[in-house]
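User: Could you go from structure to sequence for me? I need the amino acid at each position, not a summary. Structure tokens:
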């Protein structure tokens, strides 16, 4: 037991394993939770259990997702898969559970199950770049190269600014023994995000296959330099510190990252978010504008700037930033929501309503748009 009272074993308590684990997790009885999942598998709840949960089903699903992360962190991937499956029984459209379950299936080599989860994810969030990339990776892992190629092209039509998707398309073409287009797509990936280390690595391989030895060595050197600078690790450390609300330490890590790699766009984005959370709006705006300068065709960059300008009541400037985002991606539901907020604050209620309705047309399941 860690930090809580010992609980009776699941069999003695009469509870289903997943409800027992939620109680143990809530009390901090982590050793009891581990003992329970080591002793028996998670069993999908029956209709009576689901009916009894009622409105609490969503909270149960969220708790099981947190437990799943804990289990993964402690090397219990099989139990984590069971936890996520039970979470989906309570809330079949839980995107977090589907995403993590897909990744666990991929790690276990079960690419058919990973693909099924990823397809459900795309059906729920068809405009989400993470969902699209997850499907590409599942198809690629399962050897479905033509389908992976088609999925990557579809993803780029929705988010042509996304460097990681350009990289994945290049990787698919490399697996299909087409090094020339693979190199072109990976070059586009690193042009859009020079800090995407994996793309530099795979670009070097594509160039090597094409006999472009000097360029391959340069790409490999860029990959090695990124590893030596360890800027990716600094950003990951900052993310963990931010989640722990240790914002000053997070900012220090991000400042180191951008000092080492001034063109690391995502580090500038994260730095702006951290400074914004500390209410240092002038510094935050400078960081976010640097992000925009590095990613001028990325709607998320313009949205981030617009949200900061909204916070400081520069509504006209915020509106301009959101309109620029829509110029980059005209079907971005979140941007229409943000524009609706701007118009609502400016008492232009007809325009606010029109933007909210457009957001719902684009993302009918968006809770933010409904709210």
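Assistant: Here is the amino acid at each position, in order:
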């Amino acid at each position: 037991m860690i930090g809580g009272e010992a609980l009776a074993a699941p069999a003695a308590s009469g509870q289903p394993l997943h409800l027992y684990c939620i109680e143990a997790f809530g009390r901090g009885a982590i050793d009891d939770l581990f003992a329970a999942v080591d002793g028996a598998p998670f069993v999908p709840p029956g209709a009576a259990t689901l009916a009894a949960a009622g409105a609490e089903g969503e909270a149960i699903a969220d708790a099981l997702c947190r437990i799943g992360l804990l289990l993964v962190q402690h090397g219990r991937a099989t139990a984590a898969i069971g936890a996520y499956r039970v979470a989906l029984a309570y809330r079949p459209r839980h995107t977090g559970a589907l995403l993590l379950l897909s990744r666990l299936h991929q790690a276990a080599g079960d690419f058919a199950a990973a693909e099924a989860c990823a397809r459900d994810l795309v059906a729920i969030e068809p405009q989400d770049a993470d969902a699209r990339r997850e499907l590409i990776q599942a198809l690629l892992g399962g050897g479905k190269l033509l389908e992976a190629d088609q999925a990557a092209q579809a993803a780029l039509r929705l988010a042509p600014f996304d460097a990681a998707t350009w990289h994945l398309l290049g990787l698919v073409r490399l697996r299909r023994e087409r090094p020339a287009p693979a190199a072109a797509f990976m070059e586009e990936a690193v042009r859009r995000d020079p800090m995407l280390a994996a793309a530099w690595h795979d670009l070097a391989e594509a160039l090597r296959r094409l006999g472009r030895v000097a360029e391959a060595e340069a790409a490999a050197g860029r990959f090695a330099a990124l590893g030596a600078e360890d800027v990716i690790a600094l950003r990951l450390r900052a993310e963990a510190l931010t989640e722990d609300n240790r914002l000053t330490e997070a900012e220090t890590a991000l400042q180191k990252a951008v000092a080492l790699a001034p063109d690391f766009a995502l580090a500038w984005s994260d730095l702006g978010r951290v400074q914004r959370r500390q209410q240092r709006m002038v510094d935050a705006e400078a960081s976010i504008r640097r992000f925009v300068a590095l990613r001028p065709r990325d709607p998320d960059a313009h949205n981030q700037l617009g949200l900061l300008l909204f916070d400081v009541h520069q509504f006209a400037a915020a509106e301009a930033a959101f309109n620029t985002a829509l110029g980059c991606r005209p079907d971005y539901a979140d941007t229409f929501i943000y524009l609706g907020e701007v118009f609502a604050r400016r008492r232009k209620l007809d325009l606010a309503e029109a933007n909210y309705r457009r957001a719902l047309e684009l993302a009918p399941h968006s809770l933010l748009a409904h709210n």
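One structural detail worth keeping in mind: DSSP finds 23 helices and no strands in the chain.
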